[in-house]
Amino acid sequence: MKKYISILFAGLTLSSCVDTIILPDDKTVEEDYWKTEEQVESLVKGAYTSFASGDIMSRLIVWNSRSDEFTTNTSLSNSDLNQLYMADIQTTNGYSNWGAFYTCINRCNQIIAKSASVMDLDPNYLEGDHNNNVGQMLALRSLCYFYLIRAFHDVPLVLEPYTMSSQDMSVAQVAPGVVLNQIISDLEKARTMVLSSQDASLSLSYIKHYGFFTQDAVSALLADVYLWKGSIYRDKASYTRCIELCDIIHNNRKAMFTERIGDFYASFDDDDYFLNACKYYYYAFTGIDTEDIFSILFTDNTSLCNMYFKSKNQTSAQPNFYTNSVYSASGTSPLGASVFITDKSGTLTDIRAYESVFSFGNAAESGATIRKYVALDGRKADLKAEPGSSRDYTPYNTNFVIYRITDVMLMKAEALVQKARLTLEENKEELTLLESAQTLEDSVAIAERIQEVNEHVSAMYVSAARLAQIVNTRASTTSTPIQALSDSTKFAAKTGNVDGTTDYVKRMVSNFTTLQSPAPASDLEILIMGERAREFCFESKRWYDMLRFNYRHTSTPANYDQLLADQTPLQNYSEFLTLMGRKYASSAVITSRLLTEPYLYMPIRKAEMDVNPLLIQNPVYKDSETTSKN
After folding, report:
1. 10 Å Cβ neighbour count for 608?
2. Which one, 63, 219, 386, 586, has least CB within 10 Å?
């Protein structure tokens, strides 16, 4: 066997029936394995299990810890985490190890490449079964690559399985745009291959079907990818496709729930998204909930436990991360010092604050501990801060949500606002034409076109704000029931008209005037970012929300079609740096280390660089093993 193992097998455990075993003499046991439907199903489950490894789970959290949500517990002297917190990452940092993702990718590649042959050997393994399995693996592989390009920018793209040690495992990186296009191609294909959510819920247990890729889960991932692409390339067509996919999920969900539970719940919320009421908001974090679309299923999620609850199995042990005053106290402005916003009377009625943070409103900086994914039950609309959790260290059988329906709603809202912004930019020349029009007829025709564009843009603004309003209102303890049910399982988002939605935006955005104009794109962008921060705090989404915000506003668009080493560094957006810095006592020191795009990405680990001569290091990480100075 080769003296070293490069990118694909770093950290790979060659055990169990879910891996092709690699032998020193380059013989494999795969000819004895790809024979039955049961063996393929075992491999598929093994791929999901691989994604649910502690190495991947910890990186989903740690890579997101660079957002404004987290304060690293520096008293634990975890050098790797402290480096990320202080924006001084070394190339030896353990969290720059991408091996676990490529292990999962290799398992997916094996199934994609080899499972078709089983149809010739096992009459029970039908084409529909095969398509479903391959579709799931295309989606799971895409999810791995989506995380990788957002963490590293430039990564190797491997689409064929590695089965023998004689294969050359040194692979060069490609630009993230290449990977992004591959992800989109694979997911568009996977959508046509996997089971619908309704079929999956009937053929699998009610609980477990949320842990596998269904059509809605693939569509949610693909919508996220298009939202990312739209922000990187400032591409209207990508935002349009994101909106389409969100609508598909919404329509599927409405049809499934109406058929399953009848007309009584056909108007569970105003717009038929079938959201839980305020008192049941926390259900999604205690197991599997009807708002769930795709989750990672665990029997003992030790990595999540270490990050949010206890770093080790001792009574007095502390977590690796706390949150900070941005998320542990209420305020009045989404871009101010706090994420959770009070109403006009100065009262906070948003249950998400108390569901997400222990001792909300009362915690010292060092005591602002994360409640979400730690507490065993919800607050049931009780606006009282809970001091802490008495749960056991193990088993920490807490699943981790990747997509739920409110994410789909707010992705659509974000895409609508950005599509509206780009629509206005496309039609700027109409104003110039109006000023230079030579005849009354020309002026009228141009004015009519401008009016049509403005009406279209305003309609997108209203739709976007309405979606954010519903998400916000269902989390309020003062939300109005649609009908008088004893357990208040239904709610109304105040009104369905434009004036009601405008009232919500005015409460959340300082000096806001009206949705009926082409002006409020920036206001609504901040509104939706704030709503996402409240809804998804500590769910490993905030860093990517902030990156999209940055990429939309840099002075020139990012070049996603070149490696970082081949580019002049892109200057990061000042407001993004403000968000980055607000969790620090001395924000200027930290943000001065993040002025250009390459600093937003992890280094290629030194151990990988040493064994793979084709890899090119992120240019801000030097041989001295730490970041270069701006």
Report:
1. 20
2. 586
Structure tokens at 212: 């596998």
Write out the H or E segment, with its range, that includes residue 321: strand 321-323
In one-letter notation, the amino acid at residue 423 is T
551-566 exposure pattern, b = at least 16 Cβ within 10 A, e = fewer: bbbbeeebbbeebbee
**DSSP 8-state code for residue 268:** S
- Whole-number Å distance between alpha carbons of 357 and 10: 36
Residue 317 DSSP label: -
Show the CA angle centred on residue 293, arms to residues 493 and 360, nearest 5°: 60
Q: What is the pLDDT of residues 379-434, one digit of tens each?
A: 888 888 888 888 999 989 899 999 999 999 999 999 999 999 999 888 878 777 77
Q: Which two tokens stand for residue 171?
A: 């692979």
The predicted pLDDT at position 521 comes to: 78
Phi-psi label, residue 262: left if phi above 0, alpha if psi -120 to 50, beta otherwise = left
Q: What are the tokens at 255? A: 């049809």
Model confidence pLDDT, tens digit, residues 184-223:
999 999 999 999 887 766 555 444 567 899 999 999 999 9
End-to-end CA distance of the chain: 43
Smallest Cα–Cα separation from 52: which of 348, 399, 345, 332?
399
pLDDT in tens, 331-373: 876 556 789 988 777 889 999 999 999 999 885 555 689 999 9
Please tell me the pTM assigned to this model.
0.90
Partners of residue 492 on adjacent β-strands: 480
Query: How far, CA to CA in Å, does 194 sit from each of 39, 134, 153, 199, 439?
Result: 19, 8, 29, 10, 58
Confirm if 213 and 190 have CB atoms less than 8 A apart.
Answer: yes
